[in-house]
Q: What sequence folds into this?
């Protein structure tokens, strides 16, 4: 907890300073400390995204960023804005801070933390953004801008990767500054994302803030669309937000299209990044083929697409079974999955129906545009892969719009207090979670709190690994563990190794003497097939050993 707090004390003023720098180019979304921090996050993230094409985001990038941010923080005496908090505000901030730090100090328990977040950050800090990285590990082709942001601060200011915990602290500052108390109702549920640099947290927080500004009819459409495009670039399932900002700009504020230019440039950067790492403009959709030589193997993409469809049904049906579904079966089986996900799916559809009716009754232009945007996003998610994690943000949006005028400070504080206590207990006693919430898959990865968390956040120890070579690629695989969060680069998950070899291909370096040159896939020749067979035997023999 103490080390996370020290990270926040260093990172937050840095971002405030960068927020002041950004004001020379862009109008802030709103005034105040939090407004500067969010502008700083936007500016630093975009600068680091461009830099990551060419250089690793190591300490030589981190230190100048911090020094420049702190220079403006102290030069313009921006620290004075913290004195504007009242005693009641300070009490709320301090109590919320302790809860956030405590929850953020637990062991990470999201699977993506080990198979996607940490490997992405390792590549960005040790090598840089790599061409065709999706050929090595398909999921790395995402390279979310949020992980670029985390990577830049991971060398010494936030080595425990708790940038989400720091963002929650900033969120509290925003709530207090704007007196938008309904946001307190969301905070306890967002605590579950505090242990990992999950992009779900920033996109939910940023979308709720932008939504708040749109509902309050903020006329700065240029920065609204810019931030909306930024949120989409972090996680494309948030497509409803740039759609909403665009519709709001055109039909409500009636501003010129020139205000869309900064946001459009971010969308172009997003597409360029994806083409560079994945081969197509939007991960993981293989649409928009421009003939890039490092795009993934079609069979691997097909398998990925099939798995996405299976995940729609929580892997409870095979792909062949799903293919044989009638339209009625598609709907019925999705609604009646085993476990909690069935209830989430039903609640999702009911919420959409209620919100559509609410928008029709209110006949408010902004609420109507929000409803249209959410429906477009929901239809796209259902068509692609209707997993609850892709439409989770919809619940926050519907609750916010429908109850914004109901939850005053007193009611919001009650909700915040009750659910914060519940969540703290939820993660503090994982054995009860495993016993009473058996369908909550992530509960299996939760661990008991440790006294050391008061000083530093809990992280898992490194896992031993083996090294192999197929063709011109030397790579590492964790021993008897499916993921590679601590394995030296280049690392490949054993599951992908089996998948590649089964498809008769394997990733290869474009330039065998330079990892930065990127990766392509190549069909295995007879020599490489023998090498691959040796790798498979070695992995299988590990599991036979006691």
A:
């Amino acid at each position: 907890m103490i080390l996370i707090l020290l990270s926040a004390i260093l990172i937050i003023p840095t971002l405030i300073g960068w927020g002041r720098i950004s004001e020379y180019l862009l109008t802030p979304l709103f005034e105040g400390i939090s407004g500067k921090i969010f502008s700083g996050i936007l500016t630093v993230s975009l600068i680091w995204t461009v830099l990551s094409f060419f250089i690793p985001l190591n300490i030589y990038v981190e230190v100048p960023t911090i020094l420049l941010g702190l220079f403006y923080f102290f030069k313009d005496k921006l620290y004075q804005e913290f004195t504007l908090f009242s005693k009641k505000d300070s009490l709320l901030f301090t109590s919320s801070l302790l809860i956030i730090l405590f929850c953020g100090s637990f062991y990470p328990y999201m699977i993506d933390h080990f198979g996607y977040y940490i490997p992405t950050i390792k590549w960005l800090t040790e090598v840089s953004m790599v061409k065709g990285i999706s050929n090595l590990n398909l999921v790395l082709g995402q390279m979310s801008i949020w992980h670029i942001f985390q990577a830049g601060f991971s060398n010494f200011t936030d080595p425990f990767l708790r940038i989400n915990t720091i963002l929650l602290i900033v969120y509290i500052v925003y709530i207090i500054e704007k007196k938008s108390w309904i946001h307190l109702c969301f905070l306890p549920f967002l605590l579950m994302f505090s242990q990992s640099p999950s992009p779900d947290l920033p996109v939910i927080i940023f979308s709720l803030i932008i939504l708040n500004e749109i509902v309050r009819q903020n006329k700065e459409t240029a920065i609204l669309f810019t931030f909306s495009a930024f949120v989409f670039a972090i996680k494309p399932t948030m497509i409803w937000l740039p759609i909403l900002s665009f519709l709001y700009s055109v039909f409500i504020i009636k501003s010129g299209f020139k205000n869309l230019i900064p946001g459009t440039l971010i969308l172009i950067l997003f597409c360029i990044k994806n083409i560079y790492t994945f081969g197509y403009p939007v991960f993981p959709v293989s649409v928009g083929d421009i003939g890039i030589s490092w795009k993934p193997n079609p069979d691997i993409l097909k398998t990925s697409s099939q798995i996405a469809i299976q995940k729609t049904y929580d892997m409870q049906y095979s792909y062949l079974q799903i293919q044989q579904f009638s339209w009625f079966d598609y709907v019925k089986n999705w609604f009646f999955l085993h476990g909690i996900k069935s209830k989430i799916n039903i609640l999702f559809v009911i919420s959409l129906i209620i919100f559509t009716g609410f928008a029709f009754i209110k006949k408010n232009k902004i609420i109507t545009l929000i409803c249209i945007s959410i429906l477009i996003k929901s239809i796209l998610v259902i068509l692609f892969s209707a997993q609850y994690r892709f439409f989770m943000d919809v619940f926050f949006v519907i609750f916010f719009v429908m109850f914004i005028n109901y939850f005053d400070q007193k009611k919001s504080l009650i909700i915040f207090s009750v659910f914060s206590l519940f969540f703290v207990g939820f993660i503090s006693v994982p054995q009860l979670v495993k016993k009473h919430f058996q369908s909550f898959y992530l509960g299996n990865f939760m661990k008991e709190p440790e006294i050391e968390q008061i000083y530093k956040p809990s992280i898992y120890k490194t896992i031993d690994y083996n090294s192999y070579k197929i063709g011109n690629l030397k790579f590492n695989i964790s021993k008897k563990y499916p993921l590679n969060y601590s394995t030296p680069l280049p690392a490949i998950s054993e599951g992908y190794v089996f998948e590649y070899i089964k498809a008769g291909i394997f990733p290869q370096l474009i330039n065998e003497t330079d990892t930065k040159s990127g990766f392509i896939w190549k069909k295995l020749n007879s020599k490489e097939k023998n090498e691959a067979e040796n790798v498979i035997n070695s992995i299988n023999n590990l599991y036979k050993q006691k």
Q: What stands out?
A: The chain is about 60% helix and 5% strand. Residues 340-362 form the longest helix (23 residues). The mean pLDDT is 92. The beta strands are 465-470, 473-478, 505-511, 514-523.
